[in-house]
Amino acid sequence: MITLRPAAERGHTNHGWLETYHTFSFADFHDPRRIGFRELRVINDDRVAAGEGFSPHSHRDMEIITYMVEGQLEHRDNLGNGAVLKPGDVQHMTAGTGVVHSEFNHSQEKPLRLLQIWIFPEKKGLVPDYQDRHFDPQDRVDRLRLIASTDGRDNSLIINQDVDLYDSSLTHGTEVQLALRPERHAWLQVINGELALNGQTLKTGDGAAISAETALKIRGQSENAEFLLFDLK
Known about the structure:
Blueprint lengths: L1 E4 L5 E4 L3 E5 L17 E9 L4 E7 L3 E8 L2 E5 L4 E4 L3 E6 L4 E7 L6 E8 L9 E6 L10 E5 L7 E2 L4 E8 L4 E5 L5 E8 L1 E4 L2 E4 L3 E4 L4 E6 L4 E8 L1
Parallel strand pairs: 13-14
Antiparallel strand pairs: 1-20, 2-3, 3-4, 4-11, 5-10, 6-9, 6-11, 7-8, 7-10, 9-12, 13-15, 15-22, 16-21, 17-20, 17-22, 18-19, 18-21
C-alpha cells in the first residue's frame, strides 16, 4: 500500500527569514492524521535567508539529520563542534540527554535550503553525539546510496535506530529498486524533480508512506529526480 502525501498538503510557515514546509505536524502546524510515520517524526524543508538562522536552542531524545540541498549552513553546539555544511554534506546529531546548538546561513548573499529530519531513537537518555560527512553528489546518480544506518555499513553515518536512509538522483528513464524485508515500511520524500514510485507519479515536495509492499521500483521522470528513501521497521 502506498499513501501519497502531496506537497500542497504540507504545513507552510513563512517568517520572512525562514520559509519552511512541514511534511508532518510541527510547531504551530498540527495535522492529527500526520504526526509522523513509524519512527520518522519530522521532515522540514527549510529555506533560510542570507545571514539569518536559528539562535541557540535545545533538543533531547531525538536523532536529528540535516541534509544539505543548496547553500552553506554554519553549525555550532555546546559539545564543541563547529562546521560549515555544503551540498553533499550530511550531519547527524544524537540529542540524547540534551544538546544546545545554533544554525545560521553562512552566506551574507545567498539563501540556503536544507531538509531537517527527526527520528525517534531506540531508547532515551543516550549520550549526545555529533557527526558530519561529505558524500560526493556524483555517487548518488542513478543508484540508491546508503547515507545513514544503525550499523554504519558502506561508510554511512551511524544513527541510533533501525533505519536505513538512502539518497539518489535519477536521470530521466533510469530505474532503481529496493526490496523490503517482511514487516518493513518505507517513506519516500522527493527533493526536486519528478519520479514514478511503483507506477505512481510524485513531484517536488511530495512524499509517500509505504507499507505491505515487497519491492519498490523508482523511475526518474525528469532530468534530475532527487529524493530520500527511508527503510523503517
